[in-house]
Design brief:
The protein has helices spanning about 1-20, 35-50, 55-80, 85-95, 100-105, 110-140, 145-150, 170-180, 190-200, 205-220, 225-255, 275-290, 295-300, 315-345, 350-365, 375-390, and strands spanning about 155-160, 165. By secondary structure, the chain is mostly helical. It has a two-stranded antiparallel sheet. A hairpin with a 3-residue loop joins strand 1 (about 155-160) and strand 2 (about 165). Helix 6 (about 110-140) packs across helix 8, helix 8 (about 170-180) packs antiparallel against helix 15 and helix 10 (about 205-220) runs antiparallel to helix 11 (about 225-255). Residues about 260-270 have low confidence and may be disordered.
Length: about 400
């Protein structure tokens, strides 16, 4: 009975992660559905452990390492008199790492294939809803400003001028693309093309950059060096020209709609890409200005922001380094190494490749946005680690 309930909760958890973005769409006050599922998962994990179900030593070591890094961040934050409220804001998303216990106890061979199906189906649903929303907006059934007013308070959406928008759950557009490309699904290339088209329509350079870098890494691993050049060139173009294309398209759309009463706004409305790029550069500068011997090692502690970002920074690696130093980065390097080692020991099947390269995608994407250190990206990494461990080579 316990196993059955645990599996049901597990699949609900995966579906909610895939579709729910940052989790705030289902929040009632400070409590979200994701938090409730987390508590349920932890309670079920406790019951499994009480019933003598063992957690492997490898997982125990990772959880212990994680716990130590959290306590160091808390202690340094306390020493620096960082605001308690900001310390909690930093620690809260990181606590999701303890879901590794639940995933390790619940995921077996049968669950792995179903997770892949959820990723694929969920990514298609997100893409369909996104494109349908764009059509509703640009066919003038709903004014853009009305859509903005309806969604802005959720903090789940970021806007690309009057052109389009980004939803935190779009990370799974890239994950879904990878799972389709490595699958045996009929018309898998059509589905992958559809998902990539949605990424392009969202004008999210970070997602596109991470995806092409991931594909390039795959081609290099297969010694298909010529094929790897194509995504590398595309990645270069995205970095160099992506911002100019975004602003140009936004201005064009603004000029087309400027005659309408509700459209008298700046073409970079609600978050231009140039502003975003400048923001990242400013954050790097402010972090570098605050470096010291101790901060390089253990950071400034949780709750210690910078003038440009009092709480979370856009670059995940930068935030970890600023608040937890090299020790924090070393922990996430350990997670990456564990995933790589699990993949090397796996059966190297299509499923194994999907989980491995989706993890690589999350790590690359985290260079421009905060993903591996929040539940959305962290869940992909943790589920991949457990799934790859389960997909062992046959003796």
């Amino acid at each position: 009975m316990l196993n059955r309930i645990s599996k049901i909760i597990f699949f609900i958890v995966v579906i909610e992660l895939c579709l729910g973005g940052g989790g705030k769409l289902t929040a009632i006050g400070p409590v979200s559905f994701r938090m409730i599922l987390f508590v349920l998962a932890m309670a079920l994990s406790a019951l499994h452990l009480i019933r003598k179900k063992e957690l492997s030593k490898n997982y125990q070591k990772l959880i212990s390492f994680f716990t130590v890094t959290i306590f160091i961040g808390l202690f340094v934050g306390w020493l620096n008199n960082n605001p308690t409220s900001l310390i909690w804001e930093d620690v809260k998303p990181l606590l999701y790492f303890f879901m590794l216990i639940f995933f390790a106890l619940v995921i077996h061979q049968k669950e792995i294939g179903r997770v892949a199906k959820i990723y694929q189906t969920g990514s298609l649903i997100i893409a369909l809803l996104f494109i349908a929303t764009l059509m509703i907006i640009h066919l003038d059934f709903v004014p853009f400003l009305s859509f903005y007013s309806l969604t802005e308070h959720t903090q789940e959406f970021f806007y690309r001028g009057q052109l389009t928008f980004f939803y935190k759950g779009f990370l799974f557009l890239g994950v879904g693309t990878i799972f389709f490309l490595f699958s045996n699904t009929k018309k898998k290339y059509d589905f992958a093309f559809f998902l990539v088209s949605a990424i392009v329509l969202s004008v999210t350079r970070g997602l596109l950059f991470a995806l092409v870098i991931t594909l390039s890494a795959y081609f290099i691993s297969q010694q298909k060096y010529v094929l790897s050049i194509i995504p590398l060139m595309l990645a270069f173009l995205v970095v160099v020209w992506g911002n100019k294309i975004t602003i140009s398209l936004s201005r064009t759309l603004d000029s087309v709609k400027s005659e309408r009463p509700y459209e008298k706004s700046n073409p970079d409305l609600f978050g231009g890409r140039a502003y975003s790029d400048e923001g990242r550069v400013q954050q790097i500068k402010e972090v570098s200005e605050r470096l010291s011997v101790s901060s390089v090692l253990v950071g400034h502690g949780f709750g210690n922001g910078i003038p440009a970002r009092k709480v979370h920074m856009e670059i995940a690696y930068l935030e970890v380094f600023h608040k937890q130093g090299i020790i924090g980065l070393l922990f996430w390097l350990t997670i990456a190494g564990s995933i790589h080692l699990a993949y090397r020991k796996s059966n190297l099947s299509a499923e194994a490749k999907s989980f491995y390269y989706s993890s690589l995608f999350v790590f690359v994407e985290s260079a421009t946005n905060q993903f591996f250190n929040n539940p959305i990206g962290m869940s992909v990494l943790l589920i991949s680690l457990v799934s790859l461990t389960e997909l062992k080579k046959q003796p």
